[in-house]
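Homework help board

Subject: predicted structure for assignment chain

Our instructor gave us this sequence and asked us to write out the predicted structure in C-alpha cell form, then describe one feature. I got the C-alpha cells but I'm not sure how to describe them. Can anyone check?
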Amino acid sequence: MKKRIIIVFIAVIHLLKAQEYPPPTDLISVPTAGTLMRGSFSIDMRIQDEGGLILGLSAGITDRFQFGMSFGSPNLIGDDSLDWYPRPEAKLKYLIL
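My C-alpha cell output:
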C-alpha cells in the first residue's frame, strides 16, 4: 500500500512539473516554441569538438518576443591560434499563438 501511495505521489508531482510556466526555450541545443518572460534573460555556453566555444545571451522583451545574440570561436580552448567567428549571430523569436 505504501508503495502505491509513493508511486501516485511521484506521478502527480511529475504531471504538475510538466505544466510549468514558462516552457523551456531550448531542449539541449534545439530551439522550441517557448519564449522567455518579459524582463528575464538567459545565458548559455556550448562547447564543441576540438575546443570550440559559443557564448550566447537572450532576453525576453515581451512575453511573446525574445531577442538573443551569440559569439564564439571554433578553437578557443587548446594550443591552436585563436580564430574568432567573423560576426556575432542574432536570434529573434516571436510566439504567434
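Reply (TA_rk): Your C-alpha cells look well-formed. For the description, you could write something like this. The chain has one helix and six strands. That's the kind of observation they're looking for.
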